[in-house]
Amino acid sequence: MANLLIVDDEQSYRQLLSMVFDGENHSIRTAMNGREAMKLLQDEPADVIITDVKMPDMNGIELLKAAREALPDIGVVLMTAFATVETAREAFKLGADDFIQKPFDVEELKIIVKKALDRQVLITENRAFKRAQRERGSISNIIGHSDKMQAVYQMIETVAEVQSTVLVTGESGTGKELVARAIHDLSPRAEKPFISINCGAFTETLLESELFGYVKGSFTGANSNRKGLFEAADHGTIFLDEIGEMSPAMQVKLLRVLQERKVRPVGAHDEFSVDARVIAATNRDLKAMSEDGSFREDLFYRISVIPISLPPLRDRKEDIPPLVAHFIKKFCDQTGRDLSIADKTMQFLENYAWHGNVRELEHTIERAVALEREEEIQPERLPEHITNYNPDRIKAEFDLPEDGINLTSHLDNLEKTYVVEALKQTGGNQTKAAELLKVSVRSFRHLLDKHNIRTLSAQMRSSND
């Protein structure tokens, strides 16, 4: 049984069509013009509207346009005694299901309405199928059977149904964006856009124009209006990765958008409303940053309404075998090969600390699959720092001396050593050095200034030229 809405300013047609489709066991409502029909639609949606074109106070074409804005998938069949090619063309351009001329054959109209209802069924089934595929795909992309990951899955499913802001925390490479995508795909916003941006990859000025857009002439090079990512994510989800890298000035502007739900493009005078759910992510301790003043406390509490913490791979070693199997299949499928993994190789992988987490493991398996020429991946295909890794030896190196240490000074020296070593390995290339240390370029440059070694990068580059 379908819900039909019959709209015609002539009572005789309303009565005729009500009798015809009531006999088809449909639920029937009637209206004498488009404005009355829209009020009925606000109370209860319809599956199909059967409407006359020529009516006072809102004609059929205007009703078609208004109904499709409110209910994009609603079926609309137009009737008219004054059919023209131009009217029919406009009706189909606006998305009418069909067009019939008065006086009409009742059986023909029944067939037209049935086709419109069949289209509704196909749309519903297709949406359900796509949603099921998305849900399976999103969760299956996050590999892990450990108790800690099961808790993450439960949290994803729980928060997907609400609209609150989510903060995903975890070390680099733990899969924060995968979690954000899963939340979006399981949410009522799944049919709308998922927009992702890395806040640490842009300067303050560029980040503002990326997020909020700009108007023509607002700065040099702004030759036309440009829509921002918040507007692009309207009714969907925007994922703000590495939000801890955002400058204080941008933090203020973002806080205002989150509070007011309004965006003002760069160079514009007017604001407009946006409805985008925000999911933020960081590998930094925003709580500590808010306490020392480097991150706004009010913004921290605004984005961390629902926190989700991802465990590092070293804390869920039982997930390494299924992750390895997943990545081997992924890279073998790309090359048409069929590889397994030697027991000894798996032992090395399970023993390693994986400071780069799942991303590091994925790159390791990609390398091993590319290099292996046998049927099993051998230990020789692993990098030496993995096969030579000895947690007992590393622990001994960090044993405290009896007289203790100056922890702050020791950590500063250790940090500086890694920064210098990263520059050495990359020939002074700051971008590549930042990638080695799993930090943003902005954070890496902060470390250079902190340890007063910014000139070292230039010296190493010039020595390699």
Determine the N-to-C terminus distance. Answer: 77 Å
CATH topology of the largest domain: Rossmann fold
Largest sheet: 5 strands, parallel
Name the structural class.
alpha/beta
CATH level-four homologous superfamily name of the largest domain: P-loop containing nucleotide triphosphate hydrolases
User: Could you name the ranges where pLDDT drops below 50 across 5 or more consecutive residues?
Assistant: none
Biggest sheet strand order reads: 2-1-3-4-5
- What is the tally of helical segments? 21
Radius of gyration: 30 Å
Number of strands: 16
| CATH top level class name of the largest domain | Alpha Beta
User: How would you sum up the global shape?
Assistant: elongated
CATH architecture of the largest domain: 3-Layer(aba) Sandwich
Q: Supply the number of structural domains.
A: 4
Can you give the mean pLDDT?
A: 88
Tell me the helix content. 40-55%
**What share of residues are in beta strands?**
5-15%
Which descriptors would you attach to this protein?
five-stranded parallel β-sheet; Helicase, Ruva Protein, domain 3; Rossmann fold; 21 helices; alpha/beta; elongated; 4 domains; 465 residues; single chain
